Amino acid sequence: MTESPLIIGLKHPVNLAMLAVVAGAGLLSAWWLLPLGLLLWAFMVFNIASSPRLQYESKAESREQLAPRFQRIYNRLERAQREVLAKLEDSNARSRRALENVRVGLESLADQGYSVLKRLTRMDEYFRMGKSMSSMQNELQHIKDALPMMTNEEVKRDYEMKQVELLDEIERLRTVNDYMERGEGVLEEMADELDRIVAEVINLIGRSPDDVRDRAAEIVRRLQALENRLQSFEAEEVRF
């Protein structure tokens, strides 16, 4: 289990060493060095704990596993985010500042993507626990074949009601299956676009802020457009 960014910051060897130096200075040298040293130590802990990469890893660890067909897509979103975070963390402060909006936009898009995939997973699990399309169609065909031969009106009405229920359930299953397939397609396209965006972001790292500014703004617009599309898709009403 991944530790929280704060715990990682507290346990970092450099911070532990700093805490020991501060305690020693406060006890053996001048007492007033202790509060000043503690402030410096707290800043060092915060600096590590606020790392976007560590925060992302902590959040990713807490997320539920998705259905295999959707987990595969989310793994692509995770890989894209990890690549950008790793490259930014290894770059200079100027590059990180210039691409901060891209990082934030990528994080927001990945969160939205996970939200959609989680909804699709719930749908997938619901229908996997119920009857399959083929079994319902077989049952429906049995009812259709039996109805013309029935003479008992009460039994016939029961069969006709069951026929209506099955037709409704089959139509509902088709609607949800269509929604899941469309969602899978939308997210696959998004993952393809993210692969291209990641390559562009990596290519921008290390360039001057003037070179990065306009290109970064255009990438942010693309990320926002992808997120808007996902939000519209997720807002669709689907009965299941």
The SSE string, one letter per element, is: HHHHHHHHHH
Reported for the largest beta sheet, the result is: none
Q: How many helix segments?
A: 10
Mean pLDDT: 76
- Cα-to-Cα separation, first versus last residue: 34 Å
What fraction of residues sit in β-strands? under 5%
Computed Rg: 28 Å
Low-pLDDT segments:
1-28
Proportion in helices: over 70%
Q: Would you tell me the structural class of the helices and strands?
A: mainly alpha
Shape: elongated
Assembly state of the chains shown = single chain
DSSP E strands, number:
0
What does this molecule look like?
- There is one protein chain.
- By secondary structure, the protein is an all-alpha fold.
- It is 84% helix and 0% strand.
- The chain is built from ten helices and no strands.
- The chain has helices at 5-11, 13-28, 33-49, 52-62, 68-90, 93-98, 100-129, 133-146, 153-204, 209-234.
- Helix 8 (133-146) runs antiparallel to helix 9.
- The longest helix is centred in the C-terminal third of the chain and has 52 residues, at 153-204.
- It starts with a helix and ends in a 6-residue tail after the last helix.
- Mean pLDDT is 76; it is low at 1-28.
Features:
240 residues, mainly alpha, 10 helices, elongated, disordered N terminus
Provide a compact summary of the structure:
The protein is mostly helical. Helices cover 84% and strands 0% of the residues.
Summarize the helices and strands and which ones pair or pack.
Layout: H1 5-11, H2 13-28, H3 33-49, H4 52-62, H5 68-90, H6 93-98, H7 100-129, H8 133-146, H9 153-204, H10 209-234
Helix pairs in contact: 1-3, 2-3, 4-5, 5-7, 5-9, 7-9, 7-10, 8-9, 9-10
